[in-house]
Design a protein that fits this description.
Helix 12 (about 335-350) packs parallel to helix 15 (about 385-400) and helix 18 (about 440-450) crosses helix 24 (about 570-580). The protein is of the alpha+beta class. The chain folds into three domains: about 10-205, Aldehyde ferredoxin oxidoreductase, N-terminal domain (Aldehyde Ferredoxin Oxidoreductase,  A, domain 1, 4-Layer Sandwich), CATH 3.60.9; about 240-425, Aldehyde Ferredoxin Oxidoreductase Protein, subunit A, domain 2 (Orthogonal Bundle), CATH 1.10.569.10; about 430-580, Aldehyde Ferredoxin Oxidoreductase Protein, subunit A, domain 3. The strands form four sheets. The protein has a six-stranded mixed beta sheet with strand order 2-1-6-3-4-5. The chain contains 24 helices and 17 strands.
Length: about 575
């Protein structure tokens, strides 16, 4: 029996019937720990086979883990759903207050099914669940709707508001869900699933406490983890400059995708570097709940109102490495203020910055090559570095005034299949590429990853730390990528921020889980991690995915990477070896 039986409680909400119920699912939590492990099983149970991702029978599942609310950096919520972008496993992680709020409300997971016939939002306050009419805020950007929801909800305790903007309402396949203004369930289109259900927002308030089995050990282990986190050089980097610190090193390494990966170094990288943003624009740092690091960096962009003298508006805009790559170097934008203006527009629309940037980059090159004309783009002629053209095009992706923009709103894979340019359509498993052209491990990692994300297995790190120093065989590389991905299933079931992966190592995890009632050896953790990964792939294959049908963009072999044996044959051999190891 787990110490906290509230962790094993799952709240089921049906939007069609406006009903809710609670079930104890210790069967899932005792076997799969929490987070992504439990959410994957709930997805198997609740998602109809081969359903349309934008139909009512696609569930939304949020889950947290046993360390949530107890230990530093156990601050993420996992969302699982069928992705409208890729047509298979959709998984997205988000920080902010969402994880602790859900846990303090007394639940380990939330399952949302059905669809409303009018815009609504859900308000969860402990045992109470309310269905609120959201007609008046449908059409508002997430900042404005969040403010109105805060004014309407009077519940006490720790609260989170997860909401969509115009992108989600318009069913842009890579729309995101925003929490606490500056954090997102960014990847794979959760915002579009919200929009398809007429679900504007989910509000969760919690105020309960969490029991532990051994108070003395808990306090001792907490202090040690806290001390390690605040004194770690890596964590200091995240506090000082945030992930934007990656711009200059990756550019120097030759792994920074630039102008739709026509190049791997950006001649204007210093203009959007972490150092430049910190020196000229940094307005504040904030942290997720139960995190002592504060890696979230917010820029203050001061702009003069048009036709006014001495009247300024100041916009607060978050920045991280991935948006900086996607809306910066990938588009040839090398001025920080131009990047921030485009980022602010993307935030207002509520669409994933990474997918949006790659889509705009494909559009630019497609225009250069004559695959599309101004007839398709409605007079917009995007050129590298022109942030105003990209801002206008992003608006059309959301409003979808013609067939071209309706197609681009479905993602780069769909756009290239209709208009051409597959070799420079930079998607992996249907998901737009992350910001790493460091070598074969980065790209194989995205191709093999259960959610086709750089965070699945951190292949870019293998390129820089291993492959840059020695040559490895395709079999060795496949083993390294899979070993890391198997372990990350445990981290995302706890749920721990991946920035803390160097702290939460197997021996420590096994020890601290005892305070929550788990008795798991490191061998148990390895076995569970592999089983969770296998269950994810079982869902992917159930929905039609196959490693045999992966499209590998030719561009990744055309543009030199820092690893000299980056070749199609090497990548394909590595995928074959991984498939054999997975027994697929």
């Amino acid at each position: 029996m787990l110490k906290d039986d509230r962790l094993t409680r799952v709240l089921y909400v049906n939007l069609s019937k406006r009903t809710f119920s609670v079930e104890d699912r210790e069967d899932l939590f005792s076997r799969y720990i929490g987070g992504t492990g439990v959410a994957t099983q709930l997805l198997h149970e609740e998602c109809s086979e081969h359903c349309d991702p934008l139909e009512s029978n696609n569930p939304i599942i949020f889950a947290v883990g046993p360390l949530t609310g107890l230990y530093p950096l156990a601050s993420k919520t996992v969302a699982l759903f069928k992705s409208p972008l890729t047509g298979n496993l959709g998984e997205s992680h988000c920080g902010g207050r969402s994880a602790v709020a859900l846990r303090m409300a007394g639940y380990g997971a939330l399952v949302i099914t059905g669809a409303s016939n009018i815009p609504i939002y859900i308000s969860i306050d402990g045992h109470d669940v309310h269905f609120r009419d959201a007609t008046s805020i449908w059409g508002m950007q997430s900042f404005s709707s969040g403010r109105i929801i805060r004014e309407n909800e009077s519940g006490a305790g720790l609260r989170t508001i997860m909401r969509i903007g115009a992108g989600g309402e318009a069913l842009v396949r890579y729309a995101c869900v925003t929490t606490e203004s500056y954090r997102h369930f960014g990847r794979l289109g959760l915002g579009a699933v919200f929009g398809s259900k007429k679900l504007k927002a989910v509000v969760i308030s919690g105020r309960s406490s969490i029991p532990v089995t051994d108070t003395k050990f808990y306090r001792k282990s907490y202090r040690e983890i806290f001390k390690t986190a605040v004194e770690s050089p890596v964590m200091k980097k995240y506090y000082d400059l945030g992930t934007a610190d990656n711009i200059e090193p990756l550019n120097k390494f030759g792994g920074l995708p630039t102008r739709n990966l026509q190049e791997s170094r950006f001649d204007q990288a210093s203009g959007i570097s972490g150092e430049t943003l910190a020196e000229q624009f940094l307005g504040r740092r904030i942290a997720c709940s139960h995190c002592p690091v504060g890696c979230i960096h917010i820029a203050a962009l001061r702009e003069l109102y048009e036709d006014e003298e001495y009247f300024y508006k100041t916009s607060m805009i978050s920045y991280d490495y991935e948006p900086l790559y996607a809306l910066g170097s990938m588009l040839g934008i090398g001025q920080a203020d131009h990047y921030l203006k485009l980022m602010d527009r993307i935030e207002a629309y509520g669409i994933d910055a990474m997918s949006a940037g790659v889509a705009l980059a494909w559009m630019t090159e497609a225009m250069e090559r004559g695959l599309i004309t101004e007839a398709e783009t409605m007079g917009i002629r995007p050129t590298w570095g022109d942030h105003t053209a990209y801002m206008e095009a992003a608006g059309h992706i959301v409003s979808q005034p013609n067939e071209f923009y309706r197609t681009l709103a479905q993602g780069v894979e769909e756009a290239a299949s209709r208009y051409g340019g597959e070799d420079f359509a930079l998607t992996f498993g249907g998901n737009e590429m992350p910001g790493y052209h460091t070598g074969p491990a980065a790209h194989v990692g995205s191709l093999l990853g259960a959610r086709h994300s750089h965070l699945d297995n951190g292949g870019y790190g293998i390129d820089q730390k291993v492959l840059a120093n020695k040559e490895v065989t395709p079999e060795e590389l496949a083993a390294m990528i899979l070993d890391e991905e198997w372990w990350r299933q445990i981290l995302s079931s706890l749920v721990v921020c991946f920035f803390a992966r160097g702290i939460y190592l197997p021996d420590l995890v096994s020890q601290i889980l005892t305070v929550t009632g788990f008795e798991l050896t490191t061998d148990d953790l390895t076995r569970i991690g592999r089983e969770i990964h296998r269950e994810k792939y079982r869902f992917k294959y159930r929905e039609g995915f196959s490693l045999d049908n992966l499209r590998i963009p030719g561009r990744i072999f055309e543009t030199p990477s820092p690893i000299p044996y980056m070749s199609r044959d090497y990548v394909e051999q590595t995928i074959v070896r991984a498939k054999n190891m997975l027994s697929l």
